[in-house]
């Protein structure tokens, strides 16, 4: 299992271990001081003997490169903040399919909806469920009903009576 931490921090830890070993400390002592296993210290020592300090440097993360660059993701966020209406949609709600279409139109990159979801999470967006309201909703009529009718029809608290005891 990989030690938690950023690659740069882990590189620093490995170089610290090498410096301590070069200063004459035993591998078990180096492991204790750095909070790692003695096996890790031995592995780092072997790597440094074989490849030098370069062998202990942080390596790039494996895996596929993102389809959108950092600059493109920033531009995507600006495009999304304009709203769906600005991009020709009839309602003011973003869906994954709509965002995929905007990405393809502006950047020439195709994404499946699940891929769009990962891009959105990467730029700090989250799923928001809109409140369902009827188009015919009349806010003034609702406020008037709450002020006038509701107090008249709501139940009043039950009258308190003396407890009754029997045998």
Topology readout:
Elements: H1 7-22, H2 27-34, H3 38-51, H4 70-81, H5 96-107, H6 113-122, H7 139-153
Helix pairs in contact: 1-2, 1-3, 2-3, 4-5, 5-6
Enumerate how many helices there are, as a single number: 7
Find the count of extended strands (DSSP E, 2+ residues). 0
- Regions with little confidence, pLDDT below 50 for 5+ residues: none
Q: Calculate the mean pLDDT score and round it.
A: 88
Task: State which percent range the strand residues make up.
Answer: under 5%
Query: What is the molecular shape?
Result: flat
Helix share bin:
40-55%
Would you list the SSEs in sequence order as H and E? HHHHHHH
Q: Determine the structural class based on helices, strands and strand pairing.
A: mainly alpha
- Major beta sheet summary: none
Quaternary: single chain
Distance between the termini: 73 Å
Task: Return Rg in Å.
Answer: 32 Å
